[in-house]
Amino acid sequence: MICQNKNSEIILETKGYKLYKCLSCKIIFAHKDKKENLDSQKIYENYYKKETASRFGSIVELVVKAFRFIRAYKISILEPNYKNILDIGSGRGWMLYFLKKYFKYERTVGTQIADNAYIFSKEKLGLEIYDKDLLELPFKDTFDVITMLHVLEHVENPEKYVEKIYELLSKNGSLFMEVPNYDAWARRFTGKYWLALDLRHHLLFFTPYSLISLLKKYNFKIKRVKTFSLEYSTFTSTQSFVNLITNSDSYFFEWLQSSDKTLGLKIIWHTFLFAVLFLPCFLINLCLYFSKSGEVITIIAQKNV
After folding, report:
1. Number of C-alpha atoms within 13 angstroms, CB side, residue 253?
2. Helix, strand, coil shares of the chain as percentages rounded to 5?
């Protein structure tokens, strides 16, 4: 690794964690005061529910599938000659499924360490899925497109992943990457209440500057950068402000993922606040469309040869 985070400063302390900002590469990384000996598969053991690999109720899951179809479409128009893809951390596998079924991709490959999502992708959707970390897989072929969407913030050694992605891309292949944006406007206002902080799962945080710098170190040519996401931006901002107002930890979001949908006073109050704040947060995110202050960083980069 070029940067080993030896020269850093503490920028936030919350929930038993410290966030450090590397003064060299500007990447922000989390350190837990009391380290637990849990491997990645244990952490994500219950991330997806059994059989359907769902995380939410049926209505929200339909919305998620619609967004995965949109993702597949965006990938399909990157370059008409692209025919194969590797999706790192492929979730339930719906994006790969849609690319193969509707957009004529010949080979769609995914990695998924969460057991339920791996089994669903492989057995129910019939996809080529591997239940190992990317760094453990000895792929011999190259790929036209590699996607890593909301995964890089979960790994310990980002440079190793970027280096391997570069090796696995075909000549003039494209990388499609997305991570939460630590420079997001809502994070600046809500601080430790920012939804995308998620210190149970997120190890790293990036700004547009730090992520672009990381990719350029490994000879990627940056083609497009944006910080607006129809799927994530408004929800993240709204939940963050509800957290701030109620001094709570993403109660509405956790309720959406819970199997118990009891309507008590607490969830009614949180839902009301969410409904009131949703439109203002959407409009603010829309106004910031061309800025670097949106909730996510989406980057399309190309392999330089």
Report:
1. 18
2. 40, 25, 35
C-alpha 198/C-alpha 17 separation (Å) is: 11
For 18, other C-beta atoms within 10 Å of its C-beta total: 14
Q: pLDDT tens digits for 41-60?
A: 566 666 787 667 788 888 99
Give the integer Cα–Cα distance in Å for 223 and 299: 8
Q: Is 187 helix (H, G, I), strand (E, B) or coil?
A: helix
Q: Distance (Å, rounded) from C-alpha 267 to C-alpha 67?
A: 26
pLDDT tens digit sequence for 149-164:
999 999 989 999 999 9
Q: Is 111 helix (H, G, I), strand (E, B) or coil?
A: strand
Where are the alpha helices (H) located in 185-289, listed in sequence order?
185-190, 208-217, 233-246, 251-257, 265-287
